[in-house]
Design brief:
It contains three helices and four strands; from the N terminus they run βαβααββ. With 119 residues, it is an alpha+beta fold. The chain has one domain: GTP cyclohydrolase I, C-terminal domain/NADPH-dependent 7-cyano-7-deazaguanine reductase, N-terminal domain (GTP Cyclohydrolase I, domain 2, 2-Layer Sandwich), CATH 3.30.1130. A four-stranded antiparallel beta sheet has the order 1-2-3-4.
């Protein structure tokens, strides 16, 4: 089993349930990890034999650019695109952290994690 991951990918984005959150924006951090097996050998040194983390980054960047009310929706959209782009992935996990959410008191971050497991 091979694992490819990006950790602490930072964005300024406009996700939030409240209109002011979508107007003002805040910082978000994304972690993604995917697991897969490959039919080929990694000794071939070909990017096609693995999950290209630059592609993972671009997928995350595209989804973070679309404001949504729920961060759960953002995470699911990222997972959907990643598994469509790399259908050989066996498992994936995406965590999205919203820094300093508006909850009425000091909170470092809120977080949502969604896991994917191929049937």
């Amino acid at each position: 089993m091979i694992k490819v991951a990006l950790e602490g990918v930072e964005f300024f984005a406009y996700h939030g349930f409240y209109p002011e959150e979508q107007l003002l924006g805040t910082r978000f951090f994304v972690d993604i990890a995917v697991n897969f097996t490959t039919e080929s050998t990694l000794r071939d040194d070909k990017i096609s034999n693995t999950v290209d983390y630059e592609v993972l980054y671009q997928i995350i960047k595209e989804e973070m650019a679309h404001p949504r009310k729920l961060i759960e929706t953002v995470v699911q959209a990222i997972l959907d695109k990643v598994t469509a782009q790399f259908p050989f992935i066996n498992n994936a996990e995406v965590t999205l952290k919203k820094m300093h959410p508006a909850v009425g008191g000091p909170v470092n971050n809120s977080a949502v994690t969604i896991s994917y497991h191929k049937d």
